[in-house]
User: Which sequence fits this backbone?
């Protein structure tokens, strides 16, 4: 019996459902597993908790060395990629950086965000935009 089947049958814990319900990426999944291991919450309690319960960075540290739950690929767990892979021509670009207690955007990501905000402003200021909104 694999670890996921064991969790489902013996503990009534559906990890795939939790990952989907809370839209967890690989880091969120790691924190979830380590939260459950360190806090010893029951599956019923876990289903009632908000995702913020395990958002603390301290849950990135494994509770069990070589934990089989941490060896699971999220693609295999939920059947879809947890995040899009970086473009092949720019695989080394870091979009989000974790620095101590802060998350920062790379210069390129920041410029992309600013460009999108500008486009939104241009759309909102386009002539005739208010006319179309009130026609219905």
Assistant:
């Amino acid at each position: 019996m694999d670890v996921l089947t064991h969790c489902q049958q013996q503990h009534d814990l559906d990890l795939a459902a939790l990952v989907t319900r809370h839209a967890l990426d690989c880091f969120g999944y790691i924190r979830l597993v380590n939260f459950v291991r360190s806090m010893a919450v029951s599956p019923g309690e876990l289903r009632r908790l908000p995702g913020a319960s395990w958002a603390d960075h301290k849950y990135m540290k494994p509770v069990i060395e070589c934990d089989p739950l941490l060896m699971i690929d999220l693609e295999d767990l939920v059947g879809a990629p947890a995040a899009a892979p970086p473009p092949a021509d720019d695989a080394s670009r870091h979009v989000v950086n974790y620095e101590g207690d802060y998350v920062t955007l790379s210069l390129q990501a920041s410029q992309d965000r600013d460009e999108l905000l500008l486009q939104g402003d241009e759309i909102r200021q386009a002539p005739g935009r208010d006319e179309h909104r009130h026609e219905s």
